């Protein structure tokens, strides 16, 4: 699921740091429809996808040591 949404975000050239919920609504709706999720679950999935893309693009960053920089909720 994350990879499908990541591919869409990359194709549409959306920054992994995008926070505008209006811009992300397209991906929330896609996840809701494609994966039969509630809107809350789809928002969470898109947020997790953005985190995945941020970590994927980070150079030599250990998410366990620097997770707070990505809003991962752990340090």
Give an overview in words.
It is a single chain. The protein has 75 residues and is mostly helical. It has one domain (2-70). The protein contains four helices and no strands. It has helices spanning 2-11, 21-34, 39-57, 63-66. The chain is globular and about 35 Å long. The relative contact order is 0.15.
Strand content range: under 5%
Which regions have little confidence, pLDDT < 50, spanning 5+ residues? none
Number of strands: 0
Helicity, as a percent range: 55-70%
Query: How many strands, which pairing sense, and closed or not: the largest β-sheet?
Result: none
Distance between the termini: 26 Å
- Tally of helical runs: 4
Backbone CA Rg? 13 Å
Q: What class do helices, strands and sheet pairing give?
A: mainly alpha
Number of domains: 1
What is the overall silhouette? globular
Order of H and E elements: HHHH
Mean pLDDT: 86
Secondary structure elements and pairings:
Elements: H1 2-11, H2 21-34, H3 39-57, H4 63-66
Helix pairs in contact: 1-3, 2-3
């Amino acid at each position: 699921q994350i990879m499908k949404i990541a591919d869409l975000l990359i194709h549409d050239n959306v920054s992994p740091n995008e926070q505008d919920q209006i811009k992300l609504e397209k991906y929330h709706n896609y996840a809701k429809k494609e994966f039969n999720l509630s809107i809350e679950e789809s928002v969470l999935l898109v947020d997790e996808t953005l985190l995945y893309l941020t970590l994927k693009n980070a150079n030599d960053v250990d998410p366990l040591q620097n997770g707070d920089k990505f809003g991962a909720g752990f340090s």
